[in-house]
Amino acid sequence: MVLARTDDDAIGFYRATGFQISDSTSDPRWSARRRYLCVLPHLPLLRHPLTDDGPVEWIHGEPAPAPVLVHPPSASWPQDFAALAERIGQALGPRALAIEHLGSTSVPGLPAKPVIDVVLSVADPESEADYVDALIAAGFIFRLRESGWYGHRLFVAGPGEQAANIHIFAIGSPETSRMRLFRDWLTTHETDREAYARIKLASAALINESGGGMGLVMDYNRDKEPFIRELYQRILRNDSSEA
Fold first, then answer.
1. Tens-digit pLDDT profile for residues 41-71
2. Phi/psi-derived region of residue 236, left when phi > 0, alpha when psi is between -120 and 50, beta in every other case
3. Which end of the chain has the least Cβ crowding within 10 Å, N or C?
4. For the structural domain made of 42-243, what CATH number should be given?
5. Domain ranges for the chain
6. Which residues contact residue 243 at a Cβ distance below 8 angstroms, ignoring those fewer than 6 apart?
7. What is the DSSP letter of 105?
8. Which pTM does this prediction carry?
9. What sections of 117-216 are H helices per DSSP?
């Protein structure tokens, strides 16, 4: 993975050479300039990802079963993300190297659980002193560590707030690049978007039915996995042919 941060003077070069472009927080050295995070993915790392079935350290206990509800797409989800991104940015300042809306609620027209998935890129997720206390002070709840899966940490929104997952990865994480590709593909490929919507609705119904109206999101995600794995294979083959 090749990483760079730049401003408007050079962003055209990075776009033209195939980098993924994300908004980044301002740099104190050039506070008036809009900044970007640029990532050139290394395809073997995307094609052969680490699995997320390793040890999980739950904080405040493991999740309890609950109804798995998939809602029609909402026009409010982009605004919900923008409000979350502003809170996170205010809490962390330049330590938040990128704050991105990924996951199903980031795809226009896609049904989803009404939970905003935010991906926060930091210098090193293992350096929790850089962000944990600040996010807790901003009202977020620390839920889990998955050090063996790209150093992943997860925070969630507090009670009574718009439901949200804040996934924390290192800058340039292959998993973040995979999520960007998935979002962008579904945004521009209607047939796959509609197929994924059917899978999501069927998986939620199956999990709820087998659990008497309740289920675990982990089981819902596992039921969708064959479709997601096959779609990633096609996305990455297409990416290779266009490179």
1. 999 999 999 988 889 999 999 988 999 999 9
2. alpha
3. C
4. 3.30.460.10
5. 2-40, 42-243
6. 18, 43
7. G
8. 0.92
9. 132-137, 174-188, 190-210
